[in-house]
Amino acid sequence: MSRKILIINGHPNKESFNFGIAEAYRKGAESTGSEIREIVIAELDFNPNLQFGYQKRTELEPDLLKAWENIQWADHLVWIHPVWWGGLPAITKGFIDRLFLPGFAFQYRENSHMWDKLLKGKTAHIITTLDQPGWFYRFYFRRPSVNQLKRSVLQFCGISPVKVSYIGIIKGSTPEMREKWLGKVENWGKQLK
Questions:
Q1: 176: buried, middle or exposed (CB in 10 Å: 19+, 13-18, 0-12)?
Q2: What is the pTM of this model?
Q3: What is the CATH number of the domain that holds 40?
Q4: Rounded-to-integer distance, Cα 69 and Cα 116, Å
């Protein structure tokens, strides 16, 4: 079964292992005949600061408009990012702040605290790298980046289910460990997870 898959890479450093992860996922997914598009957030030309909050709309830059077209196009979103200080890299958070807007990703109902989820029908997979064991991040720190991206953004906007995978411990990992992880990610791509 082929799908329309959008890989969103949230690491600002092109020399990071996250770029290898994105390539491995792409390779696996391409073997299924799926259509693949990619967004490398660090390559986009945009102001990550939601300057006026939600009081006043800031016009979207051309790169953000193109990113939004890709998000609308996709059936499945694959988010790849490191965990820094328990959360998302600043550029990734800025991308979300600027793009997942009322009227785009969700819409509050008039005179209500309820909202319409405008991205229903899409699924997602978050692949995050850590410098600690995934179980430790989950149970000791309560996985704040996952709560933010999975629950407060993606599911809030109607994307479901959202699978989460941890890769690490990255710091001090050997080339053999990294190759094993890349093989696992390529299999996820083949399984369209």
A1: exposed
A2: 0.95
A3: 3.40.50.360
A4: 20
Alpha helices in 31-89 (DSSP H): 62-73
CA–CA separation, 185 and 193 (whole Å): 9
3-class secondary structure, 145:
helix
Domain span at residue 32? 4-190
Higher pLDDT, 55 or 36: 36
Q: Could you write out the DSSP letters of every residue in 75-107?
A: SEEEEEEE-BTTB--HHHHHHHHHHS-BTTTEE
Q: For residue 42, which phi and psi values (nearest 5 degrees)?
A: -65, -20
Could you give the CA distance from residue 122 to residue 185 in angstroms, rounded to a whole number? 20
Query: Number of structural domains, the chain?
Result: 1
Res 140 pLDDT > 90: no
Tens-digit pLDDT profile for residues 146-160: 999 999 999 999 999
Would you state the torsion angle of the CA atoms of residues 62, 66, 68, 70, taken in this order, to the nearest 10 degrees? -170
Distance (Å, rounded) from C-alpha 102 to C-alpha 117?
Answer: 10
Token pair in block for residue 158: 């109607």
